[in-house]
Amino acid sequence: MRTNNLGYPRIGGNRELKKACENYWAAKISLDELIEQGKAIRLHNWQLQQEAGIDLIPSNDFSFYDQVLDLSLALGAIPPRYDELRSEPLTDLYFAMARGYQKDGKDITAMEMTKWFDTNYHYIVPEFYNNQEFSYQSNKAVSEFIEAKNAGILTKPVLIAPVSYLLLGKEKEEGFNRISLLNNLLPAYLKIIEALVQEGAQWLQLDEPFLALELTETEKEAILISHDAIRSAFPQLNIMVATYFEGLNNNTQLACSLGTNALHIDLVRAPQQLEDVLQHLPGTTLLSLGLVDGRNVWINDYTQSLQTIYKAVKKLGKERIIISPSCSLLHVPCDLDSETNETSLTAEVKQWMAFAKQKLNETVLLKQLANSENMTIAAKKLQQNIDAIASRNTSALIHNELVKERIANITEADGRRNSNFAIRKPLQNAALNLPLFPTTTIGSFPQTPEVRSWRAKLKKEQLTKTQYDTLIKKETEETIRFQEEVGLDVLVHGEFERNDMVEYFGERLSGFAFTQNGWVQSYGSRCVKPPVIYGDISRPEPMTVYWTQYAQSLTQKTVKGMLTGPVTILQWSFVRNDQSRSITCTQIALAIRDEVADLENAGIKIIQIDEPALREGLPLLKQHWPQYLHWAIKAFRISASVVQDATQIHTHMCYSEFNDIIEDIADMDADVITIECSRSQMELLDAFAHFNYPNDIGPGVYDIHSPRVPSEEEMVQLMKKAERVIPAEQLWVNPDCGLKTRHWDETKKALAAMVNAAKQLQLAYEPEIKQ
Ligand code: GLN
Ligand code: ZN
Questions:
Q1: pTM value?
Q2: Are 384 and 517 contained in the same domain?
């Protein structure tokens, strides 16, 4: 029996890589220093894995920015617009592809970025052209293999397999399918692998994540051809095909027929696939059991994992078993040992958790237990594990009977407004007295360095709570005055008191814990520190009423209360794995519902419940979409439906491809939805041409992701386009998303133009006002 790892976080325990990259980009360190920093991180990671007792240690899982971009560079898949940078050092060309290049009169856009399957990691999307040629260009995989070999560690290099690489990319011109590039692509792959074999590589990990998704016949055929070519070119090389995030399902036979030496499957996400795989796995192929969760922060349940291992051993024999994490550990933080702050993460909760380093130990321990090795220590660890799992099952910290009872007593009516929209709308009109094309914003106003510095000072106790509140009040008041002056119809308080739209609520809900150093790479040098949901969720006291009420007290205009929705809070946290996501989401929904009720009681007439992450929660397999949408939409409705008919519920989403779930979005039954679409008005029109969206809608007309100030005329034109498919009485005028990353000067100009645009639109309906 062997142990294996598929990839290790490269950002560094103290985000060393982030800091090094950002210093290099700011010209504060040299290229050599950057390269040294990368080397140090790699060596540290390899040694850590060796000391833990991992047999198959990955290399080429390191990246200065993104592993897909590394591969594009290695294969010479460099879009033509970067040709003029070919004389620059390769690292600079590489960063230009990732981040764009604006220097010496050159202005080249970055490559597109998108989410890596259903994770929060973003990769750089390969760009493909008809008849594109590939060639072996960067020897990163080989040089890192040599680097490890020189340190005495014979690693297993990792490459994304050819077909998955093609599928991760996008055709940049019409009239061809990227799979047709396989013939051109394979020789470049073979060159890389040949160089690895020459240097002494005995194992190669080929990631083929698309094997766990739905494939066309052509794609299946291409997978067969590509593995056939690699296997026959290097008969001595041991190849492990790795799949993750889903089960093999209909592709089980295909995966088992590739003739590779080992197959890795994710048994955390898809434990049910084991049976089928054991059935079809051919004679000598090894099976890598992905048992340790690479996507979440909880300890492994050894007892349960051992049962799975025994089942596989019974069928295959010990020699054919490899014990592994479920996927690359890239998606979890580095080291739980660095969490020493008892107030944010108590010892009780911490004993239930494992980060990347701890997960290596778990992997090795599972092998020892299954193999009866090192039993004096292993047996003790098993007992500790059994105790920890038992304490988690019964802990009063996790289980709140009141919450469970509330969940059990939810009725259909809890997810339904008192009346339907047709009845609500006139009541709201009477209560709010808004013009046609009402104007509003999405919630946040610029979070200046000053505002952020107050929060930092409060944390370091350089400001008292009263001093801090006074500063935030002043900022809020100025923002209310600005909104009045510029003439917005529905105002917001500006969200100055919030660090982050999920963290702010997590800190005020029970059942959440926070880490000091639990960073996970999101893209490039950007890291996020997701909250940890460990227990039943409840809301001990109001979270936003104070600030919303304060803002409302300053003005005669309506101030909209701002909340983050249950699906988004769930999606952007590490969630508990001892109950379904849907139950956790419903618990959050009840907490938000209480907040909504309190806001309404405090006299707030409009409440917005943001759900920007609703779409990214969609399962990888379309067949699972209806189930997810059912509980996610229901959770939103539970959070919103507590209010009277005259109280207006808004929601906000920021993505534009919602055509395929437009009916579910309508089913949320928010009175008003504001959405991001200033960059892709056409897609919006598409959706509405085919579907009569029943409620009110604010298609964003101001792209807040850019410092550019849009003109009044431009925004009028965008709204007119929308008017062609949505009746004017249903339309709102607003930016794409929150303004917190923008500067005040552009914000002021853009919102002034936006209000004028709305006035122009109104005039068309009230010609008598026109002089
Ligand atoms: N209300 C939030 C804000 O304005 C919404 C942010 C988001 O959609 N991501 O910042
Ligand atoms: Zn948004």
A1: 0.94
A2: no
